[in-house]
Design goal:
The chain is an alpha+beta fold and 154 residues long. The protein has 3 helices and 8 strands.
């Protein structure tokens, strides 16, 4: 089964459950690493998720996937928090994290860089607007980004 289709099925199965439990479904990935397949579900909530939240979602999803059996190959199911460097994918993510430092990984370099770390200003008309350390505003088309995530300051 195509990876995209698996992700869509899992999202359809789990979204009503996560909404009911007041959890945010951050992301779903179905990836092959080495010889193994992994189905990863990332959840969050206002005060952060804990082990009980992850276990509850894992048990629910495991039961539902066993019922409909949409995935042909063997896989490992992992449910976790998106972490401090959570990905920004949905428009609401960009609104929620305005003013935070983000990392933008690009498919092609812009001004010689494939990684831009800057302050998130906004997302408008499918363009991510960021402010650099030199107070310069840059507009990056969302379609040119491979990944956007929160930056972890150490």
């Amino acid at each position: 089964m195509a990876k995209k289709r698996v992700v869509e099925i899992v999202e359809e199965l789990i979204l009503p459950f996560t909404n009911e439990k007041q959890l945010e479904l951050v992301d779903v990935e179905f990836v092959k690493e080495g010889q193994n397949w992994f189905l990863r579900v990332y959840i969050d909530k206002a005060d952060g998720v804990n082990l009980d939240d992850c276990q509850m979602v894992s048990e629910f999803l495991s039961e539902k996937l066993d019922e409909i059996d949409p995935i042909e190959q063997n896989y490992y199911l992992e449910v976790s928090s998106p972490g401090l460097d959570r990905p920004l994918k949905k428009d609401t993510d960009f609104e929620k994290y305005k003013g935070r430092m983000i990392e933008i990984y690009l498919y092609e370099p812009i001004e010689g860089q494939k990684l831009i770390e800057a302050e998130l200003v906004s997302l408008e008309n499918e363009h991510i607007h960021v402010k650099t350390s030199k107070d310069q505003i840059i507009s990056i088309p969302k379609e040119k980004t491979a990944k956007v995530k929160l930056s972890v300051m150490i």
